């Protein structure tokens, strides 16, 4: 989803980062979507569909008898999503341009989903409530987002702790909530949904696995301007050119097991 206050941009590097991130969190996303109520044959709206990764996961869940509509504001991401859909040969996925805050469908969906969208929306409750009208009675809204409050390394790695503080400051400066997943029970309830549920999944990375370092530093790079503007660190002190290597080496040297943000699913049904 690209909004006027979306902090991470939408250039080629950011789209590539989103796809790499999507690959890392694909498994917990699929688990949470199914747990939230997605099933074969459903017609599903994917809000803030970006380069298409969640839409493609949903297409696999709903199968050939289901259908997915991805909604995205950014034309650059729509173009990438459509190209990837065509390369995958998916006939049950369509993409369209629109704003998640205001979109109203011509006919209701069985489910509405989003991933890593609500953290960027200060009016998340209003957006959730708005999409009740896009659901048939009994339809489900499933959101997947972060809870960064559980990010840690054991034993503690001082550089990793500092990087976590940078990200927290950068997201807060950009008026994004990096722990929005922890608030899902309240948000869905305030938006008027029934049968509200939540589940968080946590990945644990061994000391010598460098994939997590690239994942974390990719977000730091995308959020660089907001982090620096927050005043928590200067660009020089950040040392982005060597940060991934330094972070990986620090975790490995400490023999630490470390976590990236908890992937949280929240869901509720329309009466």
TrEMBL record:
Keywords: Methyltransferase, Transferase. InterPro entries: Methyltranfer_dom, rRNA_Ade_Mease_Trfase_CS, SAM-dependent_MTases_sf. GO terms for molecular function: demethylmenaquinone methyltransferase activity; rRNA (adenine-N6,N6-)-dimethyltransferase activity. Its EC number is 2.1.1.163. The keyword Repeat does not apply. Gene3D superfamilies: Vaccinia Virus protein VP39 (3.40.50.150). Coiled coil: none annotated. It is an enzyme of class 2 (transferase). Transmembrane segments: none annotated. Residues 40-147 form the Methyltransferase domain. This is Demethylmenaquinone methyltransferase. It comes from Mycolicibacterium chlorophenolicum. The lineage of its organism: Bacteria, Bacillati, Actinomycetota, Actinomycetes, Mycobacteriales.
């Amino acid at each position: 989803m690209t909004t006027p206050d979306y902090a991470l941009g939408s250039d080629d590097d950011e789209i590539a980062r989103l796809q790499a991130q999507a690959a890392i969190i694909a498994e917990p996303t699929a688990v949470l979507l199914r747990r939230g109520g997605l099933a074969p044959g459903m017609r599903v709206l994917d809000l803030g569909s970006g380069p298409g990764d969640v839409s493609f996961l949903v297409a696999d869940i709903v199968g050939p008898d289901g259908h997915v509509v991805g909604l995205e504001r950014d034309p650059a991401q729509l173009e990438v999503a459509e190209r990837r859909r065509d390369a995958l040969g998916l006939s049950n996925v369509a993409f369209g341009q629109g704003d998640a805050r205001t979109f109203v469908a011509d006919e209701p969906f069985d489910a509405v989903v989003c991933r890593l969208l609500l953290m960027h929306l200060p009016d998340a409750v209003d957006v959730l409530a708005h999409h009740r009208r896009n659901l048939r009675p009994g339809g489900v809204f499933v959101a997947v987002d972060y809870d960064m409050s559980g990010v840690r390394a054991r034993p503690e790695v001082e550089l990793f702790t500092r990087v976590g503080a940078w990200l927290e400051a950068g997201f807060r400066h950009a008026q994004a909530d990096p722990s929005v997943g922890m608030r899902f029970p309240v948000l869905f309830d305030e938006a008027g949904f029934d049968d509200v549920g939540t589940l968080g999944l946590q990945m644990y990375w061994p000391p010598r696995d460098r994939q997590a370092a690239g994942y974390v530093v990719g977000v730091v790079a995308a959020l660089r301007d907001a982090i620096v503007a927050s005043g928590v660190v200067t660009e020089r002190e950040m040392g982005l050119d060597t940060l991934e290597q330094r972070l990986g080496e620090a975790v490995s040297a400490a023999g630490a097991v470390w976590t990236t943000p908890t992937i949280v699913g929240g869901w509720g049904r329309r009466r």
